[in-house]
Each structure stands twice: as C-alpha cells, then as structure tokens.
Amino acid sequence: MGTFTIAVLGGDGIGPEVTAEAMAAIQAVGTRFGHTFTLREALVGQAAIEAEGEAISSETMALCQRSDAVLFGAVGGAGVGRPDAKAQPENALFRLRKELALFANLRPVRTLPELLSASTLKRETLRGVDMLVVRELTGGLYYGKPSEIREGEGGASSVDTMVYTEAEIERIVHYAFELARERRKSLTSVDKANVLSCSRLWRRVADRVAAEYPDVTLRHLLVDSCAMALIRQPRDFDVIVTENMFGDILTDEASMLAGSMGMLPSASLGTRQTKHGQFGLYEPIHGTAPDITGQSKANPLAAILSAALLLRYSLSLTDEAHAVEAAVRGVIAAGYRTPDIAGARGRVVSTREMGAQVVARIAGAR
Ligand code: IPM
Ligand code: MG
Hints:
Blueprint: E1 3-11, H1 15-33, E2 36-41, H2 46-52, H3 58-66, E3 69-74, H4 90-99, E4 104-110, H5 123-126, E5 130-136, E6 144-150, E7 157-161, H6 166-181, E8 186-191, H7 197-210, E9 217-222, H8 223-232, E10 239-242, H9 244-255, E11 265-273, E12 278-284, H10 301-313, H11 318-333, E13 336-337, E14 347-348, H12 351-363
Parallel strand pairs: 1-2, 1-3, 3-12, 5-10, 8-9, 8-10, 13-14
Antiparallel strand pairs: 4-5, 4-11, 6-7, 11-12
Helix pairs in contact: 1-10, 1-12, 6-7, 8-9, 10-11, 11-12
Bound molecules: 3-isopropylmalic acid (IPM) and magnesium ion.
C-alpha cells in the first residue's frame, strides 16, 4: 500500500478536461489497490501566463521536482511565434523537459483491432502494428541558439540552430537499444545524414553504440524515407530512435495508424530515480484542440494511457498500469467512442462518459 505524490498540470484548451479523467482513473486505481495518491494541481501554459505572469512559475517547477511524477495535459494559446519566451505557453513544456532533464520521450504506437476502421489507412496495413518511438527531447532545434527573426533593411531573415553533442546522442541511442532488447530486438535510427551534420554525427555514434548490443539489429533510415515506410509497412517497425523535431513530426504521423492522436500517450524520462521508480513527465501527444475545448468532445484515452505509463515507470505499479490499460481496451471493445474515433460503428460519448466508463472498469464494476 503505497503513498505517492503526483504534480498535475492540466494546462490549456482540452488539457484540463482530459487530465481530469486521467486523475479519476488514478484515484480509481488507489481505491481498488489500496494506494494513496496525492494529486497536486498547478497552472501551466496560457492559463499560468494570465494568472501568474509566466508559462510556468518557479513554485510550480519546485512542485514538480518534489513530486514522484508529473501528469501533464497540453499547452498552447492563440497565435504562434511570440518572441518573448516567457509569454509563450509552450515555454512551460520546454522548461520542464530541460530542467527536469527528461531527455527520452517514449511514444508507443499500437493498433487496436476495434479501431482499425477509425484510421484512414487500410486494415491489412494496420493489423498488428506495435512500435515504440524514442524521441530525443532536450536537444536539437528546440533549444539551439541563436533562434530569432532578424529585421533588416533588405528584408527580414531568420535563424534556428540544430546542435547535438556526442554525449547527447549516445545516451538516447543507448536508451533505445536497451528498450529494443526488451522487445523484438530491432532498432531503426532515423536521421537526415545526406544533408545534416548533426545527422552524420548521430549515425556515427549509433554505429559505435551498436557494437555493445550484438543481439539487436540496427538499421538507419533517412527521415523522409521513414515517413513513407511508416504508412507503407508500419509493421516493419519495432523501436525507432530519432532527434527532437523528427520525432515530433513522425509521431503525429504514426498516431494516424492508431486512429487518432487522442489514443497516443507518452512518457518523458531521464536518469533520476525516486524511491518509487524513475522520475518522469507523462502527457498525451495531442495538443490543446481549441476548436472543441469546453465541449466534452475530446478523447481522454491518451491522457488515461499516459497515467498508466506513469504508474508503470515512475511508481513501479505494474499490475495497476495493466488494470488501466485493460480498462481502456474494455471500453473500446464495448463500443464506446469519442467523436475522433467514431467511424461507422460504436456509441459516441462525451469526454466525461468515456472517463467514467474507464473508471467503472478499473473499479471492477464492469
Ligand atoms: C509535442 C508537441 C510539442 C512539441 C509542442 C506543443 C511544443 O507538439 O509534444 O509533440 O513540439 O514538442
Ligand atoms: Mg508534437
């Protein structure tokens, strides 16, 4: 019977709605398995900018540091590209990832038989897809300096910087090899080595690390070719490892295999251990979806599945994580659908109802 503290940052748009259902799922786990979860909520993103003057306050950062794990919703406001970083909602995420040293972002992509028709792709292509994308999260274009628009007399110019050190590449590639070892022992490293120096170094380091994992097969794929192969033969992939921005783009694409972004969870991990497990931040890969905010139309399953990853990695509660994942499969098998995965069949329900159905199954009522 454990006692755990989780920082909960719902954020903007549909973030708080889906996070509320993930919290309910965690509390249902507490009731069923006899654990005490203390969930401490704080503002982040646009909501924090308006109330506290910055995308994430030092107090909220400290709360996250003190907790066993962080459950995150989504951030983003109206508009893009405001130059003042403090007034940019996404800055909260960048600060959390960097300051908590969460360099490994795990994004599992699996297809459920009942949801094959929710995808725009053919069923035969989708059946049995089970891959894990390992996205480097604290380097590359997201953090390189300079990054700015330069106003000039002859017109503006702009610059972004991609930087990767050998050490950064090595630790994420190691991480991915370890994960591949526990799965089907096949690792695809994705880069753009025919154009980018960062990618050439990436490939060199990946080949070197590969020597330590003779039981795992490593192949290199250029990112454009990978984008194609993901749609053409998604079953060919086991573990994918790639740099920050390629991973961002490829996982939105891969989410379409699962039928919806609303189905894909993620775990962001580093090396810090707490007394319960590996410290981490857990978030659905989707964004704030302003078009459906406040209407209880969002799919809470990605957030709930993120909570399952939290239980597994940060709290070492394996049976509990399984219970949540089984509950999610149960509601899908029973035909409950939020609009994003509705397809031709199934009963369309609200965010709240979907969450309640999951909770009922965790509790063992259904
Ligand atoms: C993601 C998101 C973020 C990212 C945005 C919100 C900055 O797209 O987590 O995939 O690009 O990392
Ligand atoms: Mg993204």
